[in-house]
Inverse folding.
């Protein structure tokens, strides 16, 4: 399942398990965030209703973007200004869309622990 969410004035197409970089959101690493502005949702070519649909995400890190140099100059007027800017970003990991959990790969089932077997035999 996928969804298109809007945050920070931009739109992102997300699915469960994706990591995206968005404009800065309040919160520490590990905090859970709910993105409620869902514009579109669907699975494959089928679209679903977005009324009341939310996207659950976890903050992975707060980071800074690349440095952007702003240089202003006016010829023959001895006017030069140099400025730099680094945008604040938040890295999000999408946990679920509308309560749906991501599909995990199949793992081998663990054998029963040896401690549990004697307890059953004694009973």
């Amino acid at each position: 399942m996928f969804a298109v969410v809007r945050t920070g004035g931009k739109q992102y197409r997300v699915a469960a398990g994706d990591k995206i970089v968005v404009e800065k959101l309040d919160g520490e690493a590990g905090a859970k965030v709910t993105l409620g502005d869902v514009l579109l949702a669907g699975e494959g070519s089928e679209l679903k209703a977005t009324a009341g649909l939310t996207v659950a995400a976890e903050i992975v890190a707060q980071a800074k973007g690349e440095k952007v140099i702003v240089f202003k100059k006016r010829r023959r007027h001895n006017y030069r200004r140099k400025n730099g800017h680094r945008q604040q970003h938040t890295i999000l990991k999408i946990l679920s869309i509308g309560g749906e959990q991501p599909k995990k790969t199949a793992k081998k089932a663990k054998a029963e622990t040896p401690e549990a077997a004697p307890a059953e035999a004694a009973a």
Remarks:
- Residues 2-102 form one domain.
- The beta strands are 2-7, 10-15, 19-23, 32-35, 38-43, 46-48, 55-74, 79-97.
